[in-house]
Amino acid sequence: MDTRKRPAKSRNATNATNAQTANGARTQLLVVELTINGSSISLQLDPRTSLLDALREELHLTGTKKGCDQGQCGACTVHIDGKPALSCLTLAARAQGKQITTIEGLEQGDVLHPVQQAFIDQDAFQCGYCTPGQIMSAVACIAGGHTGTDDEIREFMSGNLCRCAAYPNIVAAIRQAQSQIQGA
Amino acid sequence: MRPFTVETAPTAEAATAMAGQYSDYIAGGTTLLDLMKLDVMQPATLIDLNAIPGHAGVEITQNAVHFGAMATMAEAAANQELRAQYPVLAESLLLAASQQLRNMARLGGNVLQRTRCAYFRDARESACNKRNPGSGCAAITGNSRAHAILGTSPHCIATYPGDWGAALAALDADVDILGKQGARSMKFAALHRLPEDTPDRETNLAPGDLITGFTVQGPWPRSRYVKIRDRSSYEFALASAAVALKMEGDKITEARIGLGGVATIPWRAKAAETALQGRTLNETTASEAAEIAFADARTTPDNAYKLALGKATLIRALLEAGA
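Output (structure tokens, whole complex):
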């Protein structure tokens, strides 16, 4: 018998939509102005609200996913001022004044971003849950010139976990999109 | 997460004046928000440092490099001159975290990151002298696979998980601190405290102290950071080694060794450095240095593998740095 105890799982105490604290007192809501995919929007938020919860629960932009809520999986990846960042570890109130881009902001009208199209063409997802985060990181991977070798791609993309193991096809999708975007 | 207020500091001096008993500074917030969600850290006030001007560059001069504490890990790691003159400092940043985290996290906060010990992170149930002094240490008799073998005490065996810290330890960095009484400098070696019987006191910073920068004398072009972990990327070290060498021909004139993943604080292996001085660098001398570096290791059944792994990692780093 294995007598070692496994550590108990911690539960996440964040609640984006309920401003009540544990003892029933109400916290003051903040007015937060966010710029999402080029549009400005004003929200009233519990100060504890993560950018991830603001996007999903307040703005119903559910493309960005909550995988771990602890900064360990990358499913919540968005662009903040053009750079990939984790929305689960960003307070919505501190994202004011920044340009936030989500997966919903990539397509132009009805035309998918080349990276989105490449993910379809290369079968780079199965369940699709990590995929928006993968795509956001992939866009930055190409734009930042981190596609010299496949190893370089894998290293840059290492912050996005995929339990379906679509990794080889993700690398192929990035190659396809890179050659399309950069004509290489 | 417990309720809190956020106050924005316009200057570093204002930040230190605003600091109080229940406040924490926030810059990138990658450790702080994670631990606040787990109810391990419970600040009532966050003092936002992001409006403070300056403190963000990496400046390389002939004999030193200076980092502003607000520089992101990504910015510092991308600095081409840093990669050339101090590879161990650039590599230890690049091999840490993920691209997303490196874009968010700042150097000042990076060295203060907390342990990844699962019991420390479990505020609901687990005994942890670091989080709750006097409650015991669940790791010592529990799952200690990732825990430390150097610098431990009967009260705490939690690993310091940082990579850059191991490199700063090796290169004997200086830390600029702004406190309530003004500015001062501290050796990086003096920043972190061994757990001993007060594992809850992790640093020698006074209340309100704010790290504003780091200085490393150099350059150290012959340096290397080797990080060994279960996955090839995006994971904390099981064992790592930050080494820097000065050589004349094949003889070592000066060696610096910092260890990560195996110790409770950023670990400088000074006795091993001395043993290498004046010697030819080869597998034999590197092995002898590794034996000395781990001579005082205390292991549990779960982490005994770190003894061999730690030594092999150090040997590899030495030979690669000297090649």
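The mean pLDDT of chain B is 98.
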